[in-house]
Amino acid sequence: MDWAVSLSYLCYGIGAIVSGIAAFWIARKGADDRSDRWAGVVALIFTANWCIAAASFEFEHPVVGLTEIFANLAWIFVLFRIFANDGRDESLRLVRPVVVALVFVEMLQFALLGIEQRHPFSADVQSLVSQTSALFHVLVAVGALVLLHNLYVGAAPASRKILRWNAAAMAGFWAFTLNFYTIAYLVGSFPIELVALRGLAVMIIAVPFALGYTKSAAGLTFRPSRAVTFHFLSLLVIGAYLLLMLGLGSWLDVLSGSVARMTQVGLVIAAGALTLIWLPSARLRGWLRVTAVKHLFKHRFDYRNEWIRFTHTIGLGGPDEDSLQERAIRSLADITDSPSGLLLLVNEEGQVEQCANWRWPQMEVPANPIPSALATIFENEGLILDFDEARAGIEHQGELEHAPSWLLENLQAWAAVPLLHFDRLIGVIILARPEIERKLDWEDFDLLAIVGRQLASYLAEQASQEALSEAARFDEFNRRMAFVMHDIKNLSSQMSLLLRNAEKHAENPEFRKDMLITVRNSADKLNTMLSRLGRYAKGGQEDTGAFDMSAMVRATCERYARNHQVLLVRSEPMLVNGQADAFEQALSHIVQNAIDASVDGGAVMLESYSDGISGVVQIIDSGRGMTPTFLRNGLFKPFVSSREDGFGIGAYEAREMIRSMGGRVEVESRVDLGTRFTLSLPLQSAHELLKSSYSAERKEIA
């Protein structure tokens, strides 16, 4: 092996000479505006000193180890000074924690050298120190390469041209160091051939490194790659964990016998369990992400990646994917790492109601979740409500007195983001608190506001598409009904003619009597159907008058009670204004739906009373209930039914009938608990009062 030793001396000697010449050249010819210029000179001098020591002593001599440590520390300092070339302290602040970590790991080499000198004759100690030293060198090399990658990737295109020679040289140096010590760690020794080649590697990298100082590097900025940084932090955590396990395992070697074996097996089992439980956890990943953003980046968000993720989430489609409403919540929650959220949308009557729930099934949402005053603030000011600030009494737009108590009392509620479309409030998304606690800042508010407007446009576009689709279905339905009405009219005419002929020609009095009754009833039913269809076409505004709502409710209850348990628990006599037959049909639709939804013959309860302005009827069942999504998107949509044999127009028809008479239909439902329908019509007295007031106003205007 004499030739390998001679080659080693020769390569290290040449490396020392070239490094010294490169340091002298940079000191004389290097660009004056490079803040890292003298750091590069010092690094090359320490490298030349290390090469001289390696050419003069055995590779494992303590002097060689000491000079190598100083050389590595100098190269880390060069890497740190390169980040200061943009002229600002911000870049140095971002990388300082990582550089400190690398310096700390490298400084541990001094401790290993001390241990090695204290136990020169212990083969086990020498092997352990050698293995640990190689592992430390690997960690430092990986960290330096990651920093170098972020430096080069984050530099502007013009700055990369200035940086490329220095970056290439340092990348070669750390890459060779990484491979050298990785092989040494795996093999358990330092191959003499690779030891000799290290001097040649130093000679090769010194030349391009010196050439890199011929041009100015002003304007160099630092924009680290977030994905690589997160991976690097994960590797650091795993590496520290492995080092800890290695140290414990090596320390246990001092024990002997079955106690040592039992302890080592228990350590392996415990380490494996901890690895499976802790390392893959979402909380650990969230902590790493928050730590990296807080200490390594000027901005919280990588806006390009956030927008790509947002577009991908919204663009998901298919029968197995979430609805647009749920994807809207998810896309906003992903930005802040919120685990769940709610979507509240403004309905046709201008009230806010729950529309969708994403991973928050335990949240109970009241019937009126957002007061109209707070909705007005959302719409006019675009305020993003931070519930932690509201709980602390901090106010921005006078929102505190209107903040919903059900959200303030639930500490999981974190923020409310308004969805604005053309300065009109479409809805509000409630975000849950992230697993890693943090405060909302200006970047959160800006990004959430922009994404909220984008989501509002998507939701408004979907609503427009649904309206167009509904209009198309109605057009088809009207065309079909035109044919049906024509056929019914012909049938009515034929039966009326049959009735007149029977009156003239029937000879059997009994037969004639039965035929007359049957035909007359059929004709009456058909004419009634025609009249009702004609009324729908005209809007159902004519022939309104006073009728006893309680009497009609009582009669409907008695009719359905023959076949099902239908109970009238409260009834107050009252006169309302409307159309008695239309109200009866609407009430029959709702009662029949309640009976169909009841499970195992559960009772349906009705009550009618007056609230002073309107006559109110409530139909309550304890059936299957309906989800918030179906309440908003399916219940009152024509041709949408939860039953396979349903036509999907009964609930819609009932609501339109009540509305055409100036009334209202409200629904509350909980899955597996039941549903409450509330029908209200104006009292006759209130109707007369409004009518007289309107007439007086018209006279004054005239």
TrEMBL record:
InterPro entries: GAF, GAF-like_dom_sf, HATPase_C_sf, HATPase_dom, His_kinase_dom, Sig_transdc_His_kin-like_C, XrtA/PrsK. It holds the Pfam family GAF_2. Keywords: ATP-binding, Kinase, Membrane, Nucleotide-binding, Phosphoprotein, Transferase, Transmembrane, Transmembrane helix, Two-component regulatory system. The keyword ATP-binding applies. It comes from the Bacteria. It catalyses: ATP + protein L-histidine = ADP + protein N-phospho-L-histidine. The keyword Transmembrane applies. The chain crosses the membrane at residues 6-26, 38-57, 63-82, 94-115, 135-153, 165-188, 194-211, 232-252, 258-279. Its EC number is 2.7.13.3. GO terms for molecular function: ATP binding; protein histidine kinase activity. It is an enzyme of class 2 (transferase). GO terms for biological process: phosphorelay signal transduction system. Residues 483-685 form the Histidine kinase domain. This is histidine kinase. It comes from Qipengyuania vulgaris.
